[in-house]
Specification:
alpha+beta, 8 helices, 22% helix, binds zinc ion
């Protein structure tokens, strides 16, 4: 699969018979994307309700996201597939909001918690167990695939359970959490254990193309503002999809046509054969730096203003952008893959 999201969007549309010949310039706008059928949708892919260890009903949880500027939500209770038909009848009646069914397949190896989200699974997936950390992950990933779901590996540093080496060995998954909003999942690593962004660069530099998700893992909706509980609104994705429906959304995630954020919003992101352009929706009082990152996490260049452009030199394996906002929020684009082939 090509990693260039612009290219893959076009290819998939050609395959769908939607589009025959459209030339996209690097500075094409979000408006043009809309004309082509690709729009940005804000969503959260990791959420709990009273059907597992959340503190609120599915209806209240969906209402929170709908009222806070999101367009879609995946409900992922632990080992439980929460029904979404009734929720969509109420909250999605005007086609502006979508609830996607899902499950956090919650397993372990010894004392290590191993949690794999299954997005848009067709049936409940039972934890599969296994003979090692990698085996437990792989068996659950494969069970999610068998249920027509899209897997994403959750919070690898929670319980210091899943190492970069484990991640490298897992196959048939394209997504993992680079940021999880739960306060106890050790996103940044420490004590010699790498943080999630460092793990990401290690995997990419080793030839494994994988995409980084930010999400909430929200459990607690009744204590707004308390940083010591896993509340909502901390990490999300903006997905570029043809329409607001489960398959277009999860398929866009799987081809890397999205960015992850803890607060920075982009008005546009383009990756072409020539380079990458990032355009920020700026807050008036904030300042930004846009970093283009390549092999081994090296910052290849840094821009101080938007739009920021990176022109490929030709020898990069991948280039991804990280936007740092002066008050601490971050956006991460997915890697534009420059290698000839990706190790699966
Ligand atoms: Zn979990
Ligand atoms: Zn969770």
């Amino acid at each position: 699969m090509m990693a260039d999201p612009r290219r893959t969007l076009l290819l998939s549309m050609v395959a769908a018979g939607v589009l025959v010949a459209v030339f996209r310039s690097p500075r094409a706008t979000a408006v043009q994307d809309a004309a082509l059928g690709g729009r940005w949708y804000k969503g959260n892919t990791h959420t709990h309700t009273l059907n597992s260890d959340g503190d609120s009903t599915p209806d209240d949880v969906v209402r929170w996201y709908r009222e806070h500027g999101y367009q879609f939500l995946v409900l992922t209770d632990h080992n439980f597939l929460t029904s979404v038909d009734g929720l969509n009848a109420v909250h999605g009646a005007d086609d502006r909001f979508l609830v996607v069914k899902g499950e956090e397949v919650t397993d372990r190896f010894g004392s290590k918690p191993i949690h794999i989200n299954g997005l848009d699974v067709s049936t409940t997936v039972a934890p599969q167990g296994g003979s090692s950390v990698v085996d437990v992950i792989q068996r659950n990933v494969d069970a999610i695939r068998k249920a027509n779901g899209v897997p994403h590996i959750d919070h690898p540093n929670f319980g210091w359970a899943i190492s970069a080496s484990d991640m490298r060995q897992v196959e048939r998954t394209k997504l993992f959490e680079i940021y999880n909003g739960h306060h106890a999942v050790n996103n940044l690593g420490g004590g010699g254990v790498p943080g999630m962004e460092e793990v990401w660069d290690r995997l990419l530099s080793g030839g494994k193309l994988i995409y980084g998700v930010a999400d909430d893992d929200a459990h607690v909706f009744k204590q707004p503002g308390n940083p010591d509980v896993p509340g909502p609104g901390r990490g999300w994705v903006f997905v570029r999809a043809a329409r607001l429906a489960p398959r277009p959304i999860v398929e866009a995630l799987e081809r890397g046509d999205f960015y992850a954020s803890t607060g920075v919003e982009l008005t546009d992101y383009q990756a072409t054969a020539k380079g990458i352009t990032v355009t920020i929706k700026q807050r008036p009082s904030s300042k930004y730096r846009i970093q283009f990152i390549g092999r081994n996490g090296q910052v290849l260049s840094e821009a101080e203003s938007s739009p920021a452009e990176y022109v490929f030199r030709g020898d990069e394996l991948y280039v991804r952008a990280r936007v740092l906002e002066s008050n601490g929020s971050i956006a991460w684009t997915q890697p534009a893959w420059r290698g000839s082939s990706a190790v699966r």
